Amino acid sequence: MFHFRIDKKWGNHMDWWIFIVSYLCGSIPFALIIGKTFYRIDIREHGSGNLGATNAFATLGPKAGIAVFLGDFLKGFLPVIACVYYGLEVSPLLVGMVAVAGHCFPIFAGFRGGKAVATSAGVLLAYNPLMLFVAVVVFFGMIWMTKYVVFGSLTSCLAMVIYSFVDFNQLNLIVFSLLFFVMIYLHRSNIRNLYHKTEPTIYEGKRVV
After folding, report:
1. Phi first, then psi: what are they for 5, rounded to 5°?
2. pTM of the model
């Protein structure tokens, strides 16, 4: 019989401000800002339409894609680091997941954001680098085998669920299981395209600049 543990406090009411900061940080739409500022393009009207690094790579090119990835990555990394640095009595993982929620449903962009990948990676680097290593290996391994980013995104998140189960960590298991189902929802158009064989591979992105 498994005995799960929760090794982080759920929170002190005096420290809950970090969740608001985390959500607002996660809501910064770097893909939208970079697209409009430097390319005069609303990235939501091109490619997959999402405000994430993958769409930025595909529609704006590698420079913009890298810039968006770094911005989205830091949105997850910084709130978790702040939580640890200031010794807040809240779970760093939950703080990070609020940033991910902000990225996916940003208040500054009509609640239409990205698909959680880069921001989740930032959270993992600050929270558990070993988990990030496993996720990165699975992510790029699946892309290498299938040539589809969607497979890498979903299987890397599923790997976190399995990792949490093997590690007997109840909080992690709950959080990453919920994240996995959210990612399935966010990638529903990609899954539909895969079914109809219309999903572009990593070699088929259509740049607009």
Report:
1. -125, 150
2. 0.89
